[in-house]
Write a structure and sequence with these properties.
6 strands, alpha+beta, rod-shaped, 232 residues, single chain, 59% helix, Alpha-D-Glucose-1,6-Bisphosphate, Chain A, domain 4
């Protein structure tokens, strides 16, 4: 009884508060019907965020590990829409052998899961004919969600936290690199100003040197002319 109350409490909080906003809109649980082998069956319908493959794997593991059932329909090279445990005792629902099914499909980017069961060909579990078993079947669904979803969302939270941490580090690295580039730009700017002054100084010295060179050439020519005249 405590386990059932715990499951119900979790789902109630999950639906109303735990994952508010968009996340809360991605989970719903209700009574519904589903077609199976051309027969309309009463079922517990759940809409949830994880992919169909993730839900199938989680449901199979939970039912086999926690309920000691053999689940067919998903595994190595097998990925059917309907998972089933046929001719087995689901002790949380009944002491009698029964068939339990879970139709798990994708719809509108969410996963829809329909859980339904029967005690024979036309002895389908429904709220009118088997009200106690139907409630217990609903509790089994609660138990699965309670077992699976907290861990699923915790992994998403940890993944988001890791991503945020990495992004913050990358941001700080980028800021440090930008600051270093700015310092380098300032150093280069200062160095360029110094080089510009040196170039200007070299140009002035070059003009003076060229002027002295030309003056020396002129003086040499004059001296040569005077020597020629004296020689004559």
């Amino acid at each position: 009884m405590n386990k059932i109350i715990s499951s119900i409490s979790f789902l109630f909080l999950l639906l109303l508060t735990s994952f508010s906003g968009v996340q809360a809109q991605k989970l719903s649980l209700e009574n519904a019907t589903v077609e199976h082998n051309d027969v309309t069956r009463h079922a517990i319908k759940v809409k949830l965020e994880p992919s169909t493959k993730e839900v199938k794997r989680a449901f199979k593991d939970y039912m086999e590990d926690e309920k000691d059932l053999d689940i067919d329909g998903f595994g190595f090279l097998t990925n059917k829409d309907v998972l089933k445990a046929e001719g087995q005792v689901v002790s949380d629902i009944s002491r009698n052998k029964m068939d339990l099914f879970a139709r798990i499909v994708e719809k509108d980017d969410l996963t829809e899961m329909y859980v339904f069961g029967s005690f024979g060909y036309d002895l389908h579990i429904n709220p009118e004919r088997y009200p106690a078993e139907y409630r217990k079947m609903r509790s089994v669904v609660y138990g699965f969600l309670n077992n699976y979803l907290p861990g699923y969302y915790q992994e998403k939270i940890e993944g988001a936290e890791d991503l945020i941490g990495d992004l913050k580090e990358d941001k700080e690295d980028a800021k440090d690199a930008l600051a270093a580039n700015r310092d380098e730009i300032e150093d280069l700017k200062k160095r360029n100003e110094e080089l510009s002054e040196k170039i200007k100084s070299y140009e002035d010295k070059l003009r003076n040197a060229e002027a002295k060179l030309n003056a020396s050439k002129v003086e040499k020519s004059k001296v040569a002319n005077k020597i020629n005249k004296i020689d004559k």
